[in-house]
């Protein structure tokens, strides 16, 4: 069974607007960690933001924020004030104790920012 | 800065060849990982290692093996390359074990098997 589901294969967003990337996950662990990575066309994976399952507040890092809804098992990434350099593929990932702390990734969402 | 370096950005190999993909990290991380990335499938874990000379199978180990003789180096081996192993291969490393431990990735190797 898929542990991480990203239902949006591709999205277009206008420069300076906000965009929300969906991520749902499946785990029965009480403790887990959720990550978002960005992959530009150059190929390297860049860590963006982390949310722990017991964190009381939603994580934020600059223009990136995570809309964490634990009961719904969703961890959507919000990018505010999109820039042309945000055009990339974005991956949601999860780390679980029961999975030996390995990172499991979703299929990814391609974001294209239009000028 | 943590640096994870993969030996090649692009490789073209023939079916049946033995292929080595090398990965080196310079931050003394215990954990190293090999993933393959395919469109629509995301990243799938091939093998990982939590220590020197230690290796564990990931989700798709068939057709691959690994070697970790030194802490900083983790090699992925395709014993007999096949066309269905054409893919992007990503190496990663991370320190210790913890839920919030960030993984650092190399730039990727795009392998084409013809």
Please specify the SSE layout and strand pairing.
The complex is a heterodimer of chains A (115) and B (114).
Chain A: E1 4-5, E2 10-14, E3 19-21, E4 24-25, E5 32-39, E6 46-52, E7 60-61, E8 64-69, E9 74-79, E10 88-96, E11 103-105, E12 109-114
Parallel strand pairs in A: 2-12
Antiparallel strand pairs in A: 1-4, 3-9, 5-6, 5-10, 7-8, 8-9, 10-11, 10-12
Chain B: E1 4-6, E2 10-13, E3 19-21, E4 23-25, E5 31-38, E6 42-49, E7 56-57, E8 64-70, E9 73-78, E10 87-94, E11 104-105, E12 109-113
Parallel strand pairs in B: 2-12
Antiparallel strand pairs in B: 1-4, 3-9, 5-6, 5-10, 6-7, 8-9, 10-11, 10-12
Characterization of this structure:
The complex is a heterodimer of chains A (115) and B (114). With 115 residues, chain A is mostly beta strands. Chain A contains no helices and twelve strands. Chain A is globular. With 114 residues, chain B is an all-beta fold. Chain B contains no helices and twelve strands. Chain B is 0% helix and 52% strand. At the A-B interface, strand 5, strand 6, strand 10 and strand 11 of A face strand 6, strand 10 and strand 11 of B.
Task: Provide a concise account of the structure shown.
Chain A has strands at 4-5, 10-14, 19-21, 24-25, 32-39, 46-52, 60-61, 64-69, 74-79, 88-96, 103-105, 109-114. Chain A has 115 residues and is mostly beta strands.
- Determine the most extensive contact between two protein chains: A-B, 30 and 28 residues
- What is the helix fraction of residues of chain A, given as a range? under 10%
Radius of gyration of chain A: 14 Å
Mean pLDDT of chain B: 94
Spatial gap, N to C terminus of chain A: 39 Å
Give me some keywords for this one.
heterodimer; A: 115 residues; mainly beta; globular; B: 114 residues; seven-stranded mixed β-sheet; three-stranded antiparallel β-sheet; 12 strands
């Amino acid at each position: 069974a898929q542990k991480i589901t990203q239902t949006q294969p591709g999205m277009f967003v206008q420069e300076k607007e906000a965009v929300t990337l969906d991520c749902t996950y499946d785990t029965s662990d009480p403790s887990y960690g959720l990550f978002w990575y960005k992959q530009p066309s150059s190929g390297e994976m860049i860590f963006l933001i982390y949310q722990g399952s017991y964190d009381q507040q939603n994580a934020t890092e600059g223009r990136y924020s995570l809309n964490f809804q634990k009961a719904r098992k969703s961890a959507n990434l919000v990018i505010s004030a999109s820039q042309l350099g945000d055009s990339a593929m974005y991956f949601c990932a999860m780390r679980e104790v029961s999975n030996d702390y390995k990172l499991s990734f979703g299929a990814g969402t391609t974001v294209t920012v239009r000028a | 800065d943590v640096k994870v370096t993969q030996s090649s950005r692009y490789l073209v190999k023939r079916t049946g060849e033995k292929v080595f993909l090398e990965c080196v990290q310079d931050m003394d991380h215990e954990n190293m990982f090999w993933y393959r990335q395919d469109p629509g499938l995301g990243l799938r874990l091939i093998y990982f290692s939590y220590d020197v000379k230690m290796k564990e199978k990931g989700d798709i180990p068939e057709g691959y093996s690994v070697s970790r003789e030194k802490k900083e180096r983790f090699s992925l081996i395709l014993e007999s390359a096949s066309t269905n192993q054409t893919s992007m291969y990503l190496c990663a490393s991370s320190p210790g074990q913890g839920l919030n431990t960030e993984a650092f990735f190399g730039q990727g190797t795009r392998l084409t098997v013809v």
